[in-house]
Specification:
By secondary structure, this protein is α+β, with helices and mostly antiparallel strands. It folds into two domains: about 60 residues, no CATH class; about 110 residues, 3-Layer(aba) Sandwich (Protein Transport Mog1p, Chain A), CATH 3.40.1000. A seven-stranded antiparallel beta sheet has the order 1-2-3-4-7-6-5, covered by helices on one side. A hairpin with a 4-residue loop joins β5 and β6.
Length: about 180
């Protein structure tokens, strides 16, 4: 029986996959050995686009794979040490039962271009950078009443702090990260 199946398969293939005539221009190209002309500008643009995409991908991979780019930890001691070792910023970070730390990452400060650390916790972010002035305890508060979001910034010991939280209760609890 296997032979009958093979014969039937060959008949079906012969019927559907029989010889076909090659297009006329293909026959001419084969006989003369010429290739179809390509549009140079399109292939050049495609080449530049591919090179740009590869460079962008490489840059993204480099930033993503940098070991210094971030730390995931719920330990205030570990996050504080990691930030200080990489930026010189000494953040008086403490354990606070009411705030769950997630980790931290490094950025550049928008105003002075210096190193900045963003400490992430459930419900908000604390950003720390070197202060551009010598004024300590300057406090500003932004309250978005409709959304309930809260932003507080202050300076202390030559460093600027900005705290952004989802709501006012979280902002009060987050103060315990640095203040007892």
């Amino acid at each position: 029986m296997p032979e009958l199946k093979e014969i039937a398969l060959e008949l079906v293939l012969d019927r559907h996959l029989g010889q076909v005539r090659a297009p006329e221009e293909l026959s001419k190209r084969v006989q003369t050995g010429t290739r179809p002309e390509r549009s140079r500008p399109v292939s050049r643009c495609l080449g530049w686009a591919m090179a740009a995409a590869m460079m962008a991908g490489g840059a993204a991979w480099t930033l993503h794979s940098r070991p210094d780019a971030g730390i995931r930890s719920s330990s205030a001691v570990q996050i504080r040490g990691w930030i200080q070792a990489r930026t010189g910023l000494d953040v008086p970070l403490r354990e606070a039962a009411s705030v769950k730390l997630v980790g931290a990452h490094l950025t550049s400060h928008v105003t002075n271009g210096g190193p900045a650390a963003e400490i992430d916790f459930h419900g908000g972010t604390l950003t720390v950078t070197n202060s551009s002035g010598n004024v300590d305890n300057h406090v500003s508060v932004v309250d978005e009443s409709r959304s309930g979001a809260k932003a507080i910034s202050w300076t202390m010991h030559g460093q600027s702090y900005s705290l952004a939280c989802d709501d006012q209760d979280q902002a009060r609890a987050a103060c315990l990260l640095c203040h007892s």
